[in-house]
Write a structure and sequence with these properties.
three-stranded antiparallel sheet, single chain, alpha+beta, five-stranded antiparallel sheet, 3 domains, Enolase-like, domain 1, Beta-Lactamase, Arc Repressor Mutant, subunit A
């Protein structure tokens, strides 16, 4: 046997590999042939297991760390292990009823999303990550302008899915309350139910044109809303939520200071996380990235389990878990899957109300 693709279902090679990885995930120490013979249901002699392990090592599925007599799985081994779990239907999906009341009574999007990231980190004891809904498909509902002082106006933007954004704008003119109401009414009538990106594009076009050609309400609305939409567009760095990253500090797999420091820098800057989660948005169902499968060297000692969540049958964001490659995959995959479904349901319900 020189290639893992030649491992047939139910063969000794598959049984030994699955037993070794299960044992390693549970104990965290290299697994030897004698241990596998004694402490699993393989019913094979240590010598037979040793020969199979030698073949598995040649295939690159397991490796010997340092001078240990035991073996540990490689990323390639983990991939084979997960594929076997998935094809055999051994991923036990949690019943929605176990977590079904998590979002009861919560109607605003931010609280639902923050709660989901927290929930993932608590269930798995790893880091929960989540990308907030993409603006594509999100529609404008209403804007309000409230005078705070002669030089300050509060702009409130509400979208059709219940998002609310506020920003205090510095103004160079003392607008009356009636002028602000008229400007908001004009804006709401003009852009009712428009896609946010389309609104932003149209505002940018108006801001480049000659303001003298606009009537007063439109000039005021464009000036106010233009600043609000501009700031909203700059908030991409806030589009990834991270919860429970400190959970990783106590995991022996991340004992090397430089590795954990690099990982925390990644959590802080969020760009890698954003790009990876966006990649997962393109496919349905749970995605599993083991080590460098993610495409990022900084995550070579990590596994990322991610799944998109939907609002009214449209994929709008992705949530997931980042932890060590040595994790109970069936439990984490199940947690990510059920959380994605609960978040989608909660957001869809919030949008309707």
């Amino acid at each position: 046997m020189t290639d893992h693709e030649n491992i047939t279902p139910g063969s000794r090679a598959e049984l030994v590999l699955m037993g070794l990885i299960s044992k390693y995930i549970n104990d965290g120490t290299p697994v030897g042939s004698r241990t596998l013979s004694k402490e699993t249901d393989l019913e094979l002699s240590p010598a037979t297991i040793r020969n199979v392990m030698s073949d598995l090592e040649m295939c690159g599925l397991i490796d010997a760390p340092h001078t240990s007599a035991g073996r540990v799985p490689t990323p390639k081994g983990y991939r084979f292990f997960i594929n076997c779990l998935m094809s055999a239907g051994n991923i036990q999906t949690q019943a929605a009823s176990e977590y079904g009341d998590v979002f009861d009574g919560i109607s605003d999007q931010k609280s639902i999303l923050t709660g989901a990231a927290d929930m993932l980190s608590q269930i798995t004891s790893f880091a929960g990550v989540l990308s907030t809904p993409t603006k594509t498909g999100v529609a404008f509902k209403q804007i309000e302008f409230l005078k705070l002082s002669p030089q300050r106006v509060l702009a409130i933007l509400i979208t059709q899915d219940g998002q609310v954004q506020n920003r205090v704008l510095a103004v160079d003119k003392d607008y009356s309350d009636s002028e602000l109401v008229e400007a908001a009414n004009f804006f709401n009538a003009t852009y009712d139910s428009w896609n946010l990106d389309t609104v932003r594009t149209d505002l940018a076009r108006h801001m480049r044109s000659d303001h003298k050609d606009m009537h007063r309400e439109m000039r005021t609305a464009v000036k106010m809303a233009g600043e609000l939409f501009e700031s909203e567009s700059e908030s991409e760095k806030d589009s990834v939520l991270v919860s429970g990253e400190n959970n990783l500090l106590g995991i022996p797999d991340f004992a090397e200071l430089e590795k954990i420091k690099g990982l925390f820098d990644t959590f802080k800057t969020k760009q890698v996380l954003y790009d990876l989660l966006q990649k997962s948005l393109e496919t349905s169902g749970v995605q599993i990235f083991i080590g460098e499968e993610s495409g990022y060297k900084i995550l070579e000692d990590c596994s990322v389990i991610a799944a998109p969540y939907e609002v009214d049958n449209e994929r709008v964001g992705v949530l997931g878990v980042i932890g060590p490659t040595r994790m109970h995959y069936n439990e984490v995959i199940s947690a990510v899957d059920i959380t994605a479904r609960l978040v989608g349901s909660a957001l869809s319900s919030a949008k309707r109300h």
